[in-house]
Specification:
- There is one protein chain.
- By secondary structure, the protein is an alpha/beta fold.
- The chain has twelve helices and ten strands.
- The protein is 45% helix and 19% strand.
């Protein structure tokens, strides 16, 4: 993402404050990007009204869509100096409408406000956010209520020791996009790399095992690898935070300490039962952070919703 030309911002009609729209306007003013204020509507009762003909049901659906379009036009009316259009689709699966629109109309960025998830329901009924994290080929910016102040901090999450080429490429994509946004926002960029704690079972099962030496070795490996990765992008060691723990614990801790306005993370788009039950790091992080989150896919990622 070395430029932003087309932004799709998802509007939530149940909210008074449209933080996603506000963020898209901020970015559009700096990049000249066009904005599409996007909304899905659906009412199951219109589909089940057997007393009406198919034409009558379609007319009722069109009336609902038109009402929402007028509401959106009123919402964006204060920003006539910007290139903002609206789009409303009748769809009972919002994530499908969003991703299909992104693919067909080639948007560069999706912006969506976030909300607190109920963890139990997240396992059973996957929220739209999770589908976007896993399946949207375009970067998705999840917006919370914080502003982006001048000289703020952007945090890029990397796994500098991964030997997987896809992960290594994703590290570079994360840093490149984070640098672009940091330059755009006049912010400072920092890298964060979490490393695992010493497995307790090894220390118990192998008496001669020295957990302190092992932990120090792992830490030094992560420090050296992170500094090397940072150096490729002219970032210094003072811009690197290498800490022990799970990413979903380390990232929010470092982000809060730095008062970061944005965290950039990568996801390989895992789907299926394991993803539903375990979840991706990106999904855990979204709920844990009190700042915006930009979720990226690897270059060349093809959404499962893309038509072959």
């Amino acid at each position: 993402m070395n430029t932003i030309k087309n932004i799709l911002v998802v509007i939530d009609p149940t909210k008074d404050d449209q933080h996603g729209l506000s963020r898209s306007i901020e970015l559009a003013k700096k990049t000249g990007a066009a904005i599409t204020a996007f909304m899905t509507v659906y009412d199951f009762s219109y589909e089940m009204t057997t007393m009406l003909s198919s034409d009558e049901r379609e007319a009722m659906r069109n009336a609902v869509i038109k009402d929402r379009e007028l509401w959106l036009e009123d919402l964006i009316s204060p920003y006539s100096q910007l290139n903002i259009t609206t789009q409303v689709l009748w769809q009972n699966r919002p994530f499908e409408a969003i991703i299909t629109t992104v693919i067909e109309q080639q948007f560069d960025l999706v912006i969506k406000s976030t909300h607190q998830h109920d963890t139990l329901k997240s396992v059973i009924f996957t929220p739209t956010d999770w589908h976007l994290v896993r399946k949207c080929p375009t970067p998705v910016l999840f917006v919370k209520e914080m502003s982006w102040p001048e000289n703020g901090n952007i945090l890029a999450s990397v796994n500098a020791v991964s030997e997987n080429q896809q992960h290594r490429d994703l590290n570079k994509r994360i840093i490149k996009d984070a640098l672009f946004l940091a330059d755009l926002a006049g912010a400072n960029l920092n890298l964060v790399n979490a490393y695992p704690a010493t497995p307790i079972n090894i220390a118990i099962e192998i008496p001669e095992f020295n957990p302190c030496d092992y932990n120090e070795s792992v830490k030094n490996h992560h420090i050296a690898s992170t500094h090397k990765l940072a150096h490729e992008f002219n970032l210094g060691p003072h811009q690197c935070y290498i800490e022990e723990g799970l990413p979903e614990d380390v990232l929010p801790h470092v982000a809060k300490r730095l008062n970061s306005e944005l965290v950039v993370i990568g996801t390989v788009g895992r789907t299926g039962l394991s993803a539903a039950l375990v979840g991706n790091t990106a999904e855990h992080v979204i709920d844990s952070l009190d700042c915006d989150v930009l979720a990226l896919k690897p270059d060349g990622y093809i959404s499962p919703l893309a038509k072959s």
